[in-house]
Amino acid sequence: MTLLRIALSAAVALAPLPALATGGFGCEAADNNVKFEINAGMQRGGAAALLNFRAEIESLLKDTPADFRKLSLDREAISQHWIDGRDFKLQLYTERSQGLFGALDLVIEAVQRGKDKDEGTYKGSYRLTIENMETEQSSEAKTLKARGKVICFVE
User: Fold this and answer.
1) Pick from 106, 101, 105, 107: which is nearest to 141 by CA?
2) I need a surface site. Which of 3, 60, 71, 107 has the fewest CB within 10 A?
3) Structural domain range at position 134
4) pTM, entire model
């Protein structure tokens, strides 16, 4: 978690920021299914804009298509984000830009528990779905799914 906090602090420090209060968040998971690290600076108040968003995702699932095995995503992949009180939610979605249909959907849901309240630590789960149309003759996309634990840190 120390590397995550260092990366988060660096992302916030290097962001060209307006004169508003800012913070940031980072999430990570590493298990037999996936490894990912997500970081962003965040404006507090107003629209809660995300700054310098970056997500590195590596799928370890068998049969993951080569172009979805390792992805670097930017802000365009965010379909939902929510940090409110004890709740942290983030959804990333991206589709293959050329060729047959393929998509990756990563949903993170975490909660800040009482003992972690002062540390800004949120613990919860992720849900990863990868869809891949294997041939033009396929009637539907092959779907790979994984679930696991995630930890997020919010400053």
Assistant:
1) 101
2) 3
3) 2-14+21-154
4) 0.83
| pLDDT tens digits, 21-43 | 788 999 999 999 999 999 999 87
Give the pair of three-digit tokens for residue 8: 């988060």
Question: Which residues face 130 on adjacent strands?
Answer: 104, 144
51: phi then psi, degrees, rounded to nearest 5: -120, 140
Residue 11's pLDDT band (cuts 50, 70, 90): very low
Q: How many domains does the chain have?
A: 1
Question: Could you tell me if 125 and 147 are in contact, meaning their C-beta atoms sit under 8 angstroms apart?
Answer: yes
d(CA 86, CA 114): 9
- Interior/surface letters 72-86, b for 16+ CB within 10 angstroms, e for the rest: ebeeebbeebebeee
Cβ-based neighbours of 44, under 8 Å, separated by 6 or more? 20, 21, 22, 23
Closest to 54 measured CA to CA, from 39, 35, 70: 39
What's the token pair of residue 94?
């991206």
Q: Residue 6 in 3-state DSSP?
A: helix
Secondary structure of residue 118 in the 3-state scheme: helix
For residues 123 and 116, the answer to whether their CB atoms sit within 8 Å is yes
* Token representation of residue 79: 């379909």
